[in-house]
Write a structure and sequence with these properties.
0% strand, 75% helix
Length: 295
C-alpha cells in the first residue's frame, strides 16, 4: 500500500487503503477473466475443429432437441446437431464480421477525419457535412438499409457495418487532429521547414491513434452485435454453418421445446461483448495518462 499513499502525497487511513486495494484486485480479476474469455473465443474461431467435440453438420437423429448433458454440453437442435459445436464453429464468421467491419470502418473514418482536421477549409467543410448527414441516421438503421439493398452475404454485411461506423471514427480523428496540430512541437517542426506530409505522418498521427484504438476495441463488440442482429433478421451470412446471430434466429421458434438453442448463442454474444468492453476500458486507462495517474 506504500505506492498508493505516496502517489497522492498524503498517507491513507488503513481502512481506506485496504478498501482501495480490494477495488484494484477486483478490477484486475475482471480484466483477467475478460482476457481468458476473449482468448477462448479467438481460439474457437481459429481452431474450431480442435475444440468442438463434433462436426457442425453431424446429426444425431436419435437425439433431436436433446437437453444439455455430458454428451452434448449445450444440447442439440431440431436437426440433432450439437449446439456447442455450432456455437464454436459459428464464432469464426461472427469474429470475421466484427474485426473486418472495425478495420475497414476505422481506417476509412480515420482517414476522412485526419484529412478534414489537418487540411481544414473547404475540404473539412465537405467531409464533415457528409459525416453529419450520415450521423443523422442511427447506425443500426443505416447498416440495415445497406445490407437489405446489397443482399445477404459476408462481404455485404461487413460493408454495411463498416459504413455505418465511419462517422464516429471520423469525428474522433478530426478532433484529435485539430487539437494536436496546434501544439508547440508541431509549430516548431513547421518553423524549420518540415514538409506537411512528414509532420502529418511523423508528429501528428502517432499521437492521435490512441482514442481510435480504444474506440475500435469497444466498437468490435458493437459490430458483432450489429452483425448478429442482421443475421437474426435474415440479412447475414447464408451458410451451412451459421454464425451466432443466425443460431439465435433458428432457436427463437423453439424457446419452449428447446430453450438452449437460443440461450447459449446469446450467452456467447453477451460474454464476448462484455469481455471486449472490459478490455476496452482497461486499454483506455493505459493509453490515457490522466486516467492512469488518477488510478
Amino acid at each position: 500500500m506504500k505506492n498508493i499513499s505516496e502517489s497522492s502525497g498524503v498517507p491513507l487511513p488503513r481502512w481506506k487503503a485496504y478498501r482501495l486495494k480490494g477495488k484494484l484486485s477486483a478490477s484486475n480479476l475482471s480484466v483477467s477473466v475478460a482476457g481468458f474469455v476473449l482468448l477462448f473465443i479467438f481460439l474457437c474461431a481459429l481452431f474450431p475443429t480442435w475444440i468442438a467435440p463434433y462436426a457442425p453438420t453431424k446429426m444425431f437423429t436419435d437425439q433431436i432437441l436433446a437437453a444439455p448433458s455430458f454428451t452434448h454440453f449445450f444440447g442439440t437442435d431440431y436437426f440433432g446437431r450439437d449446439v456447442f459445436s455450432l456455437v464454436v464453429h459459428g464464432s469464426r464468421d461472427s469474429l470475421i464480421i466484427g474485426v473486418s467491419a472495425v478495420v475497414i470502418g476505422g481506417l476509412a473514418g480515420g482517414a476522412i477525419g485526419a484529412l478534414a482536421g489537418y487540411l481544414g477549409g473547404i475540404i473539412e467543410a465537405i467531409f464533415m457535412r457528409i459525416i453529419e448527414v450520415l450521423m443523422t441516421i442511427p447506425g443500426i438503421l443505416l447498416a440495415l438499409a445497406i445490407a437489405a439493398a446489397l443482399g445477404p452475404s459476408l462481404k455485404n454485411i461487413v460493408l454495411a457495418i463498416a459504413i455505418s461506423s465511419i462517422p464516429g471514427y471520423a469525428r474522433v480523428m478530426r478532433g484529435q487532429m485539430i487539437s494536436i496540430k496546434k501544439r508547440p512541437y508541431v509549430a516548431a517542426s513547421r518553423s524549420i521547414g518540415t514538409s506537411n506530409t512528414r509532420i502529418l505522418f511523423w508528429h501528428i498521427l502517432p499521437n492521435a491513434w490512441a482514442p481510435i484504438l480504444v474506440m475500435a476495441t469497444i466498437g468490435l463488440g458493437s459490430a458483432i452485435l450489429t452483425g448478429a442482429g442482421l443475421s437474426f433478421l435474415g440479412l447475414g451470412v447464408i451458410k451451412e454453418v451459421p454464425d451466432w446471430g443466425a443460431l439465435l434466429s433458428q432457436g427463437r421458434n423453439y424457446l419452449t421445446a428447446g430453450w438452449w438453442m437460443a440461450t447459449f448463442p446469446g450467452l456467447a454474444i453477451t460474454a464476448f461483448v462484455l469481455a471486449i468492453n472490459i478490455a476496452g476500458d482497461k486499454l483506455q486507462d493505459v493509453t490515457n495518462p490522466k486516467t492512469s495517474k488518477g488510478r
